[in-house]
Design goal:
The complex is a heterodimer of chains A (about 110) and B (about 170). With about 110 residues, chain A is mainly alpha-helical. Chain A contains three helices and no strands. Chain A has helices at about 10-30, 35-60, 65-95. Chain B is about 75% helix and about 0% strand. Chain B has helices at about 5-30, 30-50, 55-80, 95-115, 135-140, 145-165. Classes of the chains: A mainly alpha (about 110), B mainly alpha (about 170). Chains A and B meet through helix 1, helix 2 and helix 3 of A and helix 1, helix 2, helix 3, helix 4 and helix 5 of B.
């Protein structure tokens, strides 16, 4: 059964804005590389909510949903590569603290 | 409001609160394992919001890919990169007093924009409310074929790259 009732567009956008800001906060404050990756995932989810909500309420088609599918695929690829890099960093430095892995710093 | 409308409204705001509340745990927890498990609830909450946006395919994909794939990867990374003994303080925050005002300013700006903008919302009667799987399939195989092919090449590249990066080094 379809949910016929529709909620205001602004509520979705504000939830997405909150998710986005929490993601930015995570990226700004965390030192653990895995935690920073979680922040990126939060931001991608916020983007997806915006894409789907705007494509439903403003464009009224499914183009936004197709883009959201692409974003999910990109997030999966990004997570796989980033975690492989993080595990390599851990093997080399015995830490995932992004402040301590500064060997390339001049 | 009828009975079912009240129920839908309650469920909607429960999903919204679930999403935001667990995202707050992700952001503020000092234990990275708690953050990772709270991320699970965030992804579920977002899947629920997709259902309210009539995006049934995306809701399923969100649960399968994010919860089943990405979250398991993140949990693996947490377990592999932290010792069990120091996991309680594994997620220290730096300079939250500097980041918090900045983020609050950004959020205030976004909220102001969202409330003030006159969104060209389509009237409720014209909104499409039918299953989207078929339409997404036609769109991916028709109008968006080139991005679809590009992203499949990218996925292959990411797969090979991740396997190459993560394999053990040969000793010679």
């Amino acid at each position: 059964m379809a949910i016929l009732q529709s909620f205001p567009l602004q509520h979705f956008l504000i939830i997405a804005a909150m998710l986005f800001c929490l993601g930015i906060y995570v990226i700004l404050t965390r030192k653990n590389a895995v935690a920073i990756l979680m922040g990126v995932e939060l931001i991608l989810n916020a983007t997806n909510i915006n894409l789907v909500a705007l494509s439903r309420y403003v464009a009224n088609d499914i183009s936004g949903q197709v883009f959201a599918v692409f974003v999910i695929i990109l997030a999966a690829a990004e997570a796989a590569v980033a975690l492989a890099i993080i595990i390599n960093i851990y093997q080399n430095f015995k830490t995932v603290d992004v402040d301590k892995t500064d060997e390339l710093k001049g | 409001m009828s009975n079912s409308e009240i129920i839908y409204t309650v469920i909607f705001y429960v999903f919204g609160l679930l999403t935001i509340g667990s995202a707050c745990i992700v952001a503020f927890s000092r234990n990275i394992l708690h953050s990772a498990f709270a991320l699970l609830l965030t992804f579920f909450g977002v899947a629920g919001l997709y259902v309210f946006l009539q995006a049934d395919f995306l809701a399923a994909a969100q649960v399968v890919i994010y919860v089943g794939g990405i979250l398991v990867l993140i949990l693996f990374a947490v377990m592999l990169t932290n010792k069990i003994t120091d996991i309680h303080m594994s997620n220290p925050a730096t300079k939250p007093w500097l980041a918090a005002p900045l983020v609050l300013i950004v959020f205030a700006g976004l909220t102001w924009l969202i409330v003030k903008t006159d969104w060209a919302v389509v009237e409720t009667a014209k909104l499409i409310s039918e299953p989207t799987v078929e339409k997404i399939g036609y769109a991916i195989m028709g109008k968006y074929l080139l991005p679809f092919e590009l992203i499949s090449v990218l996925l292959l590249g990411a797969l090979l790259g991740a396997a190459y990066l993560a394999r053990p080094k040969k000793k010679d």
